[in-house]
Design a protein that fits this description.
Shape: elongated
Largest sheet: none
Distance between the termini: 16 Å
Structural class: mainly alpha
Length: 56
């Protein structure tokens, strides 16, 4: 695998992580239970952090 192909794959994976985090945050907004909302928000933030680590 070339460096260019690896970079492309990592960027695609990072974009997928962003979409996943956005979906989780939307779900968290609709949850009434504060504990569940906090957990979903933490999971979304972790997913966004992974996005940052995948960007070269």
């Amino acid at each position: 695998m070339s460096a260019r192909e690896l970079k492309s794959r990592l960027e695609a994976w990072a974009d997928e992580k962003v979409r996943h985090a956005e979906k989780i945050l939307e779900t968290a907004k609709n949850v009434e239970n504060p504990l569940a909302r906090a957990v979903l928000t933490a999971v979304a933030m972790d997913s966004q952090e992974h996005n940052c680590s995948l960007r070269p």
